[in-house]
C-alpha cells in the first residue's frame, strides 16, 4: 500500500498489533475503493444517473454563502 511498507520493515520494525492494524486498514481501504469503482462502473453501464445528486442550482439554494471557484462550488461551514 505504501512504498515504505516493505515486508522486511513490517516484520522487523512493527509490533504485531501495529502490523494487524495496518493490514486491516489496508483491506478496508481496498474495499471502499472497490465499492466506489464498481458503483461508478455499474452506473455508467446501466445508463442511469445517480438520483441523489442535485444540480448546482440546488446546492446554491441550500448554501447561499458558497463561492464559485475554478475548482467548483466551494462551501464553508
* Count of discrete structural domains: 1
- Average residue pLDDT: 80
Enumerate how many helices there are, as a single number. Answer: 3
Structural class: mainly alpha
Question: What does this molecule look like?
Answer:
The chain has 77 residues and is mainly α. It has one domain (7-74). It is 58% helix and 8% strand. The protein contains three helices and two strands, in the order αααββ. It has helices at residues 7-13, 16-46, 56-62; strands at residues 67-69, 72-74. A two-stranded antiparallel ribbon has the order 1-2. A hairpin with a 2-residue loop joins β1 and β2 (72-74). It is elongated and about 55 Å long. The mean pLDDT is 80.
Topology of this structure?
Layout: H1 7-13, H2 16-46, H3 56-62, E1 67-69, E2 72-74
Antiparallel strand pairs: 1-2
Which features would summarize this protein structure in a list?
single chain; 77 residues; mainly alpha; two-stranded antiparallel ribbon; 2 strands
Write a short abstract of this structure.
The chain contains three helices and two strands, in the order H-H-H-E-E. It is mostly helical and 77 residues long. The chain has a two-stranded antiparallel ribbon with strand order 1-2.
Amino acid at each position: 500500500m505504501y512504498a515504505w511498507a516493505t515486508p522486511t520493515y513490517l516484520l522487523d520494525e512493527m509490533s504485531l498489533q501495529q502490523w494487524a492494524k495496518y493490514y486491516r486498514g489496508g483491506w478496508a481501504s481496498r474495499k471502499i475503493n472497490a465499492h466506489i469503482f464498481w458503483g461508478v462502473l455499474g452506473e455508467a453501464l446501466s445508463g442511469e444517473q445517480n438520483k441523489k445528486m442535485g444540480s448546482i442550482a440546488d446546492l446554491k439554494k441550500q448554501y447561499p454563502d458558497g463561492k464559485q471557484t475554478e475548482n467548483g462550488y466551494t462551501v464553508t461551514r
